[in-house]
Amino acid sequence: MPHTNRHRTTRRTVVRALAATLAIASLATVGGCGEAARAAAKANANEITIWTHTAGSEAELAGVQQIIKDYNASPDKKATVKLQSFPQSSYNDSIISASSANNLPCLVDVDQPNTPYWAWAGILEPLTDKALLERAGDLMESGKGTWNGDLYTVGYFDATVALFARKSVLKKLGIRVATVDEPWTKTEMNDALAKLKASGEWTYPFEIGTADNKSEWYAYAFGPILQSFGGDLVNRKDYQSSDGVLNGKEGKEFAHWMRDLVAKGYISSKGGSDTALDFVNNKSGLLYGGIWSMSTFQKYAKDYDDIVVMPMADFGHGSVTGGGSWTVGMTQSCPNKAAAQDYIRFSLQDKYIATMAKAGMNIPTTTGAQQLVPEFSKGGDMQIFTKISKKYVKMRPETPAYNFISTEFRKTIGDIMNGADVDTWLDKAVNHIDGNIQGADGYRKN
Amino acid sequence: MTNATATSTRTTHAKSTSHTGRVTRTAEQRHENAVGWAMLLPASILLLLFIGIPVLLAFGLAFTNARTISPNPTRFIGFENFTRLFSDPTFWFALRNVAVFAVIVVPVQAGLGLLLAVLINKQVRSSVFFRTVYFLPVVTSMVVVSLLWMFIYQNDGMLNQVIAKLTFGHWQAVDWLNDPRTAMGAIIVMSIWQAVGQHMLIWLSGLQTIPGELYEAAELDGCSAWEQFKNVTWPCLRSTRNMILITITIAAMSLFTQINVMTQGGPRDATTTVVFEAVRSGFQQQEMGYASAITLVFFLIIMVITGIQRYLTREK
Q1: Residues A175 and A99 in one domain
Q2: Looking at CA atoms only, how far is residue B182 from chain A in angstroms?
Q3: Is the Cβ pair A7, B31 closer than 8 Å?
Q4: Is A392 inside any structural domain?
Q5: Which of A56, A171, A320, A375 has the greatest number of CB atoms lying within 10 Å of its CB?
Q6: What is the number of domains present in chain B?
Q7: Across the strands, what pairs with A162?
Q8: How many beta-carbon contacts under 8 Å exist across A and B?
Q9: Which pTM was predicted?
Q10: Do the chains contact at B71 and A11, CB–CB below 8 Å?
Q11: Does ipTM come in above 0.85?
């Protein structure tokens, strides 16, 4: 009796185990189909989704939500827009994986320098809607993402970089206050650093954000210095190689200058994590930072009026400043391209551009919107950034290889500032970059 | 355990019904086999799906120019990835770093684990407390541990502060993780601290399988504590030792989390590792083919090392 029971139990167990496995397997497949079916149904139901990088930045998120709310409430809407926001640090990875899984939404945020890469990879579709293109014509150049002559993305704001100092400190040490029309020369820059260091007031008088070594910062902020020296990240003639521009004479000069900043004790090779706040607390005498530092100053600096904004020094080939910020684009897989472009056009109204720009204290991309933000309108204390950007902006290389170049540049300059040999390290970086470009067949479309 | 129970049931059952015994036994064996296979099935499917197929895919991809996203079809490029890899100084740095890490971590961590295990194997009341304390870092996620130690290693972090206090301010603060000379050492110390508890536990289970009579006999023969350890404990821990050796080696070779959180391979490639380079090329730079080539080479290296270890520790 016991053994027959046992038999039955075993048989039942086997059956159950098999059934469970089957059930799980079928659930998985059905689940997969269901997902696809649901996605398709959604597309047909005239519902489009936008992915943004704004989770974690409340003001910008609220701005997007407002635009979407207004669009969905407007009588002329061509589809209902839905929002899905991601934290910025994982945003690009999410897009890449969603793209390889064929799971992209209709509209996506794009960091402007990524535009060519995503366009090349077939993620983005050029914008063609007439009304939209007409409106895009009003945007400043650095607010647009283009590749091969096509417009892919448009932005509400642009950011830039600048030097920040205290007027009183400069005066005390006998350093000239640089202006937009007359930035410091290389000699003046070195002289200023030496004087700041000699004053003994700071362990590291200069802060350039070296701790920010996981993001775009190195390429965005130090690339312009390289360009001002006369070098570049990649040869822009055909974007096929970095040889001779990154590791040429000018590139090496730049790298030595960067390394000397650490060697002479001007900067720490691993600075503070909040450079703007450190500057407010007088942990550094001179700050090379983003336009967004201003919002920290406005909030915390008691001597706000003493802080002066200057363009980065001219190292021989003119002062250069970074440009290109977050933009919006449309995906190739979007089933309702008319609606997607209609939404983008709708969102480019001056009032929305103003809200979005104000959220991060960035430069609004239209003159109309600039009038709506007091800080950027005539006499506003942020207007100097508009001037710096207009006069000195040099966009990051518009090539699909940029993503790779940026990670390589970041690592190389970081290592060089930590004392690595300039010649070998730059050659190594060029070797890697050229290898990547060749490996991707020159980033041409076959 | 289960096997033993099954066999004993079968014998009793065979005795009670001797005339139909043979028939039932084969039928039952078949059922037991079926149950065995069914139980194996879920694990095998999952292993195949998430280990087997990806490994085979990686081996195939290593010979192509595959990218995570690309408009162009993937193309077979022969050994190009490998020539590029072997001509890249960063890869050799990575290999050197992993070798240094393994050579130091394997003996130190295993040794320290054994020492701790022997210390708390004594049946005293506080042993449970110490066991818990030593095991605490193991149950903490490596990411959390890495973040904590980043603060400890900072320029104005705890380590520098403590040393400064101890030397009455004669200590020049060291930026442990940002100095090529100290970065790897700092990571080694932290890694050993984090993982030693786990190996202590494995050693402990090994120690507790040694029959007490052996120690009693050794004591009667007048052996000192050291002689007891040398002649009883050490030989009896043979299989535990082999297992620990191989698991620590593999874990040490695949060093990644600490690097990813703490140093990103820097400064000056002083802490980059093979796995970190693979993840960097595959995910940050989207060169799947190249990353697969790295993992293939890494796989072969681990195979060879494990093979050598198996050969050296084989039953003679």
Answers
A1: no
A2: 13
A3: yes
A4: no
A5: A320
A6: 2
A7: A289
A8: 102
A9: 0.79
A10: no
A11: no
